[in-house]
Write a structure and sequence with these properties.
The protein contains 7 helices and 2 strands; from the N terminus they run ββααααααα. It is mostly helical. A two-stranded antiparallel ribbon has the order 1-2. A hairpin with a 5-residue loop joins strand 1 and strand 2.
């Protein structure tokens, strides 16, 4: 017998009983309670656990939020980071006499100092490498104006009429003729 308790009892479905017991679908006794969608998405076997409320839920929410947002702990004080970078440690060289060029180089070095200490989440890196920019939208949304929708409904032959309290408002603004 395994030190973790394998083989575990098998079940064809996820279950919850009246005594607050629960169990996941378990089709192979020597495999932990894996979730197929997670395994396919992240290409590894992850154990799952039911979270309701309480400390477990708070802890996992805190962990996930910090992991996804990749706290920039080393970048809290940007001015200190800049001061340590070579951007502010320039010597008076002949090629840096032009103030504009000097400022461009200083800004470049400041940005480079920030970027070299930045932690970026893996999904963000992939979006940038794929050329998708900083946001990725899987859908294209169209704006639907409510007034146009109401106008369409009222003009269609379905017997809809505006309530009396709305008729004067609509006639005053000249949008919909309710007498059709």
């Amino acid at each position: 017998r395994c030190k973790r308790g394998a083989p575990w009892p098998l079940s064809d479905v996820d279950w919850v009983d009246e005594a607050r017991g629960w169990g996941p679908k378990w089709t192979f006794g020597y495999f932990n309670s894996w979730q197929p969608d997670i395994s396919v998405s992240v290409r590894c076997n992850n154990d799952i656990k039911l979270l309701t409320n309480g400390r477990d839920t708070g802890n996992i929410t805190y962990y996930e939020t910090n992991y996804v947002s990749k706290k920039q702990g080393r970048n809290y004080n940007a001015s200190a980071l800049f001061a340590k970078s070579p951007a502010f440690q320039m010597k008076d060289n002949a090629y840096l006499q032009d103030a504009r060029k000097h400022n461009q180089i200083m800004l470049f070095r400041c940005i480079h100092a920030m970027n070299s200490k930045q932690e970026v989440a893996a999904p963000m890196v992939m979006m940038l490498l794929m050329g998708w920019g900083f946001t990725f939208s899987s859908h294209r949304y169209e704006t639907i104006y409510w007034s146009g929708f109401v106008r369409y409904l009222l003009r269609s032959d379905n017997g809809l009429r505006l309530p009396n309290r709305c008729v004067n408002f609509v006639h005053h603004h000249g949008q919909i003729d309710n007498s059709q």
